[in-house]
Amino acid sequence: MNPYDFVRIDWQTPPPRRAPSWHHRLTGEKKLYSGSLEIDIYAETPLFIGDPRSVSPDPRKPALSFKNGRDAYTIPGSSLKGLLRNVIETLGNGCLTLFDGRYERNKVDYYREVAPAFQHCSTTNELCIACCICGMLKDRSKEIFLGKINIGDAVVKPETLHLYDPLYTLPLMEPKPHHASFYLDESGKRIAGRKYYFHHNPDKEPAQENRLITFGRTPANRYIQPIERDTQFSCQLEFSNLEEDEFAVLMLAVTLEENMRHKIGYGKPMGLGSIYLYPVRLTLIDYSARYTRPGTTHGRSKYEGKQFWNAIGEPVDRFYDTMLNQNVMDDLRRIWLWQPEEGTIYRYPDKRGWFDLPQNRTKRIADTWDA
Ligand SMILES: [Zn+2]
């Protein structure tokens, strides 16, 4: 089975766009959500966050997962924001910013397969839900919108830290982009959707090599020491002036559903990087109460456990009913299913020349179960 699949895009429905609301006083009756969410992160499989600064000159010494300035293992806030943005774009029908249509340095460019109405937002008063929440920075545009959320680094809880045995990764080979049916839909005209990696069975070892592999003098794989599963991290997500649907999709992007997990970091095709985001405490700040009824809580309400689910229940239910595309949720639920189905081995089709066999040229990902 191929290690990833695509969440479909509904090409009939371009991302709705709006001017972002940024201040409660300017939005009249509309309720806006401001506050913060404390999140605990549990590694469900070994986890490795690449650190471009620490490339060991000695290939016999394993590279370590990312650490912050105080030598603590960390999942950077920027990685978490990228992860959540991707999920928000997917569930909220956002523009296609993270779609990487330019493979092999523009040799193959699928970006032209993306209809203009789906391309990255470019003006600050017409933003999709993902750009409203996470911000919009566009290469060739002078305009920026900083967004309404801020995510801190997730730092390890030292008492939970365990390291996995160092391992040699699989060679970092992606399927060739010219195998178009992996990237284009059945009409051959559109990209197939948003790419997500399946979770692997946490009781099995990650797929790996037993040595360093080289192409000529260039190493094709890496020697790394992942963080062991059950290690915990914690971080803080702050948000301000979210409209109800923005709050809902953000909470859904964090919590997903009970039988789903996120995936982050390096080595996703090998089975690394499955994580569980657990919402510890939601704090909502009611600015109107804060100004009109200055009291002991300053308009702050805290929600934990069952209260948390009650606090987000109505907006999230409404989001399911009115905005969420069922096919999209079905696809993501299937790919990010936790725990994964027993007995499935995920890897790129590795039979020699598989991609080049004439009978395989039109095969789609569902056909790779036995490849
Ligand atoms: Zn956008």
Question: Could you walk me through the main structural features you see in this protein, from its secondary elements to its overall organization?
Answer:
The chain has 371 residues and is of the alpha+beta class. 18% of the residues lie in helices and 20% in strands. The chain has six helices and 19 strands. A hairpin with a 4-residue loop joins β5 and β6. The longest helix has 17 residues, at 306-322. 35% of the residues are buried. Residues 94-95, 121, 127-128, 130-131, 136 line the site of zinc ion.
Strand content: 15-25%
Q: What class would the helix/strand composition place it in?
A: alpha+beta
Please state the CA-atom Rg, rounded to the nearest Å. Answer: 22 Å
| Major β-sheet profile | 8 strands, antiparallel
Question: Regions with pLDDT < 50 over 5+ consecutive residues?
Answer: 100-107, 174-178, 351-355
Topology pattern, helix = H, strand = E: EEEEHEEHEEEEEEEEEEHEEHEHH
**Heterogens:** zinc ion
Distance between the termini: 7 Å
Write down the overall geometry: globular
- Helix percent reads 10-25%
